[in-house]
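Example complex used in Figure S2.
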Amino acid sequence: MTLSRRAVLATGLAATAAPRVWAKPRLEYALKPRQVADGLWMLEGSTEYFTFENGGNIVNVAFAETDAGAVIFDSGPSRRYAEELRKLVSEMVPRGIAAVVNSHHHPDHFLGNQVFTDKPIHALEETKAQVALHGDGYADNMYRLVGDWMRGTEAVPPNTVLSSNDLTIGGRSFSAVPLGGHTQADLMILDRATGTALTGDLAFLDRTPTTPDADLPRWRESLDYIASLEPKGIVPGHGPFDTEGRSLVQTRAYLDWLDGALTDAAEDGLDMVEAMRIDMPDEFAALGAQPQEFERSVSHLFGEYERAALPEVN
Amino acid sequence: MYKTLFAAMLIATPALALDDPKVTLDDPYRTGMLGYLQKQILDDPSQITLDPRVKVLAPEAAEDSFHVPITVDARGIENVERIALFVDYGPIPHILDYYPGEAEAWLSFRFKIDQATPVRAAVQTTDGAWYLGGTAIDAAGGGCAAPAAAYASDDWEERLGKVRARMWPKTGRVRVIVDHPMDTGLADGIPVFTIQALDFKGLDGKKMARIKLYEPVNEDPTFSLRFAEGALTAPLQVSGRDNNGNEIEATIPFNGAIR
Ligand SMILES: [Zn+2]
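Predicted assembly (573 residues):
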């Protein structure tokens, strides 16, 4: 305890010496919807990692117009984001908001839920369980990463568990397919009218896929399944709208490379810090949020690869 | 009155010089902790300098507070006897001591981080001089005071002391994972339960390397050692014990054919 107290003292003295900044810029996400298909809009986030500058707006959110109002896919990284989102959608869709869907339990996809508790918030059962389990921890960590943008944000689990592969709202029909691999439960939505797939984080484009809860073989199966649907357009979890299936190909290629690279590193006897520093092919080094995301993936995944490479000897 | 008192206190600060170490270093991390750590962990050496040949490599931010990977590389320094690893901020600053012996002055391992902190490596050579390096790691925190994940599974007692290991004679690498909860004693109701040391020896009993572990070493400790290329020509024995008297014994087979 002596140590911590000294630390606090040292920090405190340093802080008094620094000049105070009184004028704070007003924080605003300035969300700009882009129409990507008939009655379907996308709000594209940046392809960076969470920073104070981007306020956590690194995620894609979408909404579809139905006769009962808009269905919103993922609720964004913060209360502030979701308040702006709700206002914007309410202005654009005359009947307002009918429902919200959470693709999976990562913080940038559900931390806006608290703004929509008066609506059905649909998700897979496992997603609801994971938010209940980890939601507060995610919110705390987001405060640490992006600061004041998170003010007032609380983790609220989805309130409606999907029980069928069919989700029809206000006459607009969606396939709601339970997949996985990016996390334990990843919901893919296919808008049947336009053939657009909303993949959540099963697909990334020009942004490095993230792996804190990944199961690589299952993830690759899910990508194969989405490709087999031959969607006309894809709203990936992160990165631009995709009309050519590039997000599926690129995500698959990165996961294949990651699997091979970590296998080789473990078989060569490297430890984690060394594995984090291996050469990356240019096509993957150029993706958004590198090299941090690769380093994070080594932290998440390498333990299993090294256990496989080291036999039991007693 | 108060103002005067306050000023007097400020002026009186140098009286704390009683606390100062024998050598005051120009600490690049300026935490105000280094002198204290020199005294507590290194026994206040009279010969100590900052040295860029002591490289401490780690990710900028700890993704997993329970398993922060770190590599110390002091191969640029001759005659290394001991490498002490420690942090500035955390309930238990001392992580481990490495006595490389026949191995190179290089070690990779993982530890539990409690909060953002510099991590330091102090390298002592056989003449008694110390050389210091470090890196800063950002962290969300909490790694030290939580119970080991092992207790979530039923079979941890069966796994206790299980060793996974392999050597790569061509590149001189040796890697070891020992299954053990490594409890810090900081989690409610769970006493300290840690491996105290691991010794690496030849089959003839020749001492090759030794690691002394303290509470911050991660659950299921994982170590990578390096020997000179071609220096490994036979199996290695690993042995150790924890503070409850459990013995750890294993032989790392020699396999010259692979990689
Ligand atoms: Zn995700």
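The longest strand of chain A covers residues 196-204. Chain A is about 35% helix and 20% strand.
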